[in-house]
């Protein structure tokens, strides 16, 4: 089977590009793509909309022709394909026709008789639905194609990595500077960009001191420094283990060694694990004294957590640790991170780096989103097309060698956004995670979000039909060819939903799950949970002959087919000894009586949009509820409302580290006191329905969806330091949380939330985060370096930072960067940026102009 996969991959990649000296038309297309000017601009987020379009925004593409257009360019057969993630009901152009290809993929072709003139500029007006609040919404790698020629990326649309920040930029996107037109959708939205002047005010109110004392993160339940001489760990330790194998704590010992505390010294380090120890699961007691270090825990996880805490404190105190007593255990048993590999791929090395970072901060569940509409990212040996075809995006209209290049992937099938985890990759990740007491939860989204699987299995079907193997071809076909249902998913696909009425669909699910279970067994770590997604299923199957009987059995309501599918797959998973997990919108529509007893549900509705109702309803079913609330835990949302901040913002205009830190998992309604309704509707958030007696959530999970994240550095920027705040809330109680009272409602700024306790907690946390930055640097984590807040009043520049100790630089008129050390006299506009702890990376540059105060 591996040989077959290799042969298929070779076939896909074998088609050679046409040589310019052999193909004048290809050379002409290449030259035109290299010299065509391309500019994308957001004009207005609340214009007067054309008739029939509600809630529109106006954007433009301006194409500037080169001074010489190659004579051999096949203009009448030429198409320009670009990505546009919003609905695009109206495109206005004098010379171009427009059509939606599928998903975000749009295509322009010349109108009959239209001619491209050398040196001319053509502006295409794009009337989208919704809003573009960030430059990062734009998709790169627009491309040109013509029949019989290799498609070529328009050079002007290629992304560029900024050498100072390490982040991807899109030079073809025009600056967004008009706050009045671009910051909101109009009344009643009162969002304002977080300018440096506004950030200065916010950061002054939240100012935190540089950390001292205990810097362990997440914050321990009890941590006391005692008087006396420090324990000198610089000479190393001698290890004594009781009740635990070295392998079970080896990664944590390695982390300790990286701080300079290696084995081979004389200071005793005794680790005792006893299942009867009077600590909670994953809990530990750590005692540091001049004569030695003692760790007691109930399990290997607790012992590892103790070593991680010791490593943090030893790094901060440079190996000479003051006498310390820590008694600690997690608030919640489920502390998770979700990574989307489907939209844009992030490979083995990046995932392993994140696994180590999770262990450092005591997260214990890694939810790997392995497939979506835009990509299949895991090798399934029995179905090689899934990985070979489903993991690659290129310009192949037939989609027999790859998927169409959604999300700015470009036409040539290269680049890091393409790819998949081999069996060996996945097994290595499972082993590395288990060694750090982290459970891998694989996810294959279904029945919606399944376009990559469908396309790959259609390619398999075509191949086997060509070989005359009809029975084998139909064995895994996931669509009914006679289905005439028309639908569009939320991401604008018309073909992304498995047909739940076909036996082949359930055969496919079993084959994939069994393959994943086999990988886990090979890694020595049995598969425990499988996440089936179950969210955002479009209105499919209505006209599928294969579904006629099933629809009739459900009173003619095709919408009931999704719950029936979830129930059937859940039973199948339970029969395999697996725990079923899924997103709350799909899971909530099932009949609890037909579901297994052991169910995990991820609540992903926003605080003001039904999160409380879903969480309490599904908690009362006896399910394990994991809070994945977008306006607290979706880290693909921007850090702040600003056009230069990357990330989607359908759930929140800004999810900063402070907002995540303030999360109150134990009282979901109370979070409305800290989070404004993005719909700008001022009304209290009620508690509905009341959660059952003794019920509590199972835990919390951070989510990172990857539509706009094409680089690993972008992943790390969006995760850190917010993930540290999520780790804190999963491990440590939030003392500002008001007691849960059934039926209570909360409004913005509600006084029942203890603002003083929150402020004090933030000051302590911010200092501990700053103390972690050198450790993140050492791990190679490209965390976000927040731009400084700043203002100029009466000629005096003042600047501040989110986290204490952050280095700030400023310059005037493009001069040399100067370290900011305190208020300084300046003239005119000033540029500022912050620096990472190791000085290697910078924040984005912000600009401030003088304001008189007299």
UniProtKB/TrEMBL annotation:
Q: What is its EC number?
A: 3.2.1.52
Instruction: Indicate the secretion signal residues.
Output: 1-20
Show the GO cellular component annotation of the record. membrane
Which residues are annotated as active site?
Answer: 536
Catalysis: reaction(s): Hydrolysis of terminal non-reducing N-acetyl-D-hexosamine residues in N-acetyl-beta-D-hexosaminides
Its Gene Ontology biological processes?
carbohydrate metabolic process; glycosaminoglycan metabolic process
One example GO MF annotation: beta-N-acetylhexosaminidase activity
User: Sorted alphabetically, which InterPro entries does this protein's record hold?
Assistant: Beta_hexosaminidase_sua/sub (IPR025705), CBM2/CBM3_carb-bd_dom_sf (IPR008965), CBM2_carb-bd_dom_sf (IPR012291), CHB/HEX_N_dom (IPR004866), CHB_C_dom (IPR004867), GH (IPR017853), Glyco_hydro_20_cat (IPR015883), Hex-like_dom2 (IPR029018)
Boundaries of every Chitobiase/beta-hexosaminidases N-terminal domain copy: 34-198
Protein name per Swiss-Prot or TrEMBL: beta-N-acetylhexosaminidase
Concerning SMART domains, the annotation shows:
CHB_HEX
Q: Which UniProt keywords apply?
A: Glycosidase, Hydrolase, Signal
Family classification: Belongs to the glycosyl hydrolase 20 family.
